[in-house]
Design a protein that fits this description.
CATH class: Mainly Beta
Helix content: 10-25%
Shape: globular
Oligomer: single chain
Distance between the termini: 50 Å
Largest sheet: 8 strands, antiparallel
Number of domains: 1
CATH superfamily: Umud Fragment, subunit A
Strand content: 35-45%
Length: about 250
């Protein structure tokens, strides 16, 4: 192999890495789910594609991992007037938790009154509709734990699955509020209602300003119950049924 071939190979790799970085920076960014707060919608080990341009761009849109690129302050989201809707699953920066990236579902919009009574969400004093949907089992501390599963219907008609480990009214965050969502902010909740630190905990998360939202989760492209480098476990840990599936 001569110097020309080596340099051509290097340039090809530079082009690939540059293209990947630009796509992640402006369009679609991969994320891995590290916790169970969005079970059963998202499992630990799910890899997601997040749409970064659907709501336009803020400074936190230009964020890789926990690093936000030092750009001039963007005072209004650029290139889109679309706003998050109830039911959207979004990634956002939580400055109250060491600037970590969180992923939750939008439940409350600016100006809404949100309250939980015995585990039931009330939006502007109206209870959301709930329908029993069987059970869901997950492994916790090497033991199977059975959760009750429900379909929750939001005021805009959006339906999604939630799970409850404890009976309604017995969870630690089953009776909280009321919260008034400030203008320009959103109330977020995890689908695993008894295992989610979200907007129900003002000191840890609270309502999330629009400019901290990085994008909307669109689909899962890979899912495994083991770490990505544990190649020898892949044949037994791949969740093929979750590959390339939309997030609802």
């Amino acid at each position: 192999m001569n110097k020309y071939d080596i340099w051509r190979g290097v340039k090809e790799w530079i082009w690939v890495l540059t293209s990947f970085t630009l796509v992640c920076f402006f369009l679609y960014q991969p994320f891995k789910i590290p916790s169970g707060s969005m079970v059963p919608t998202l499992l630990i080990g799910d890899f997601l594609i997040v749409n970064k341009f659907c709501y336009g761009y803020s400074n936190d849109s230009f964020r890789i991992g926990t690093f936000t690129f030092p750009l001039p302050k963007i005072t209004k989201r650029l290139f889109s007037d679309n706003l998050p809707q109830r039911g959207d699953v979004v990634v956002f920066r939580n400055e109250k938790d060491k600037d970590q990236n969180y992923i939750k579902r939008v439940i409350g919009l600016p100006g809404d009154k949100i309250e939980l009574k015995d585990g039931v969400v009330f939006i502007n004093d109206v209870a959301v509709e709930l329908e029993e949907d069987g059970e869901f089992s997950i492994i916790e501390n090497d033991e199977y734990v059975i959760y009750k599963k429900y379909i929750e219907k939001l005021p805009n008609g959006y339906k999604h699955v939630i799970i409850k480990r404890f009976p309604f009214g017995k969870g630690a965050l089953d009776n909280v509020g009321p919260f008034i969502v400030p203008e320009g902010q959103y109330f977020m909740m995890g689908d695993n209602r008894d295992n989610s630190q979200d907007s129900r905990v003002p000191e840890a998360v609270g309502c999330i300003p629009l400019d901290r939202i990085m994008g909307r989760a669109e689909c899962r492209w890979f899912s495994s119950s083991c770490e990505i480098w544990e190649v020898f476990k892949w044949p037994f840990s791949m969740r093929f049924e979750r590959f390339f599936t939309a997030i609802k």
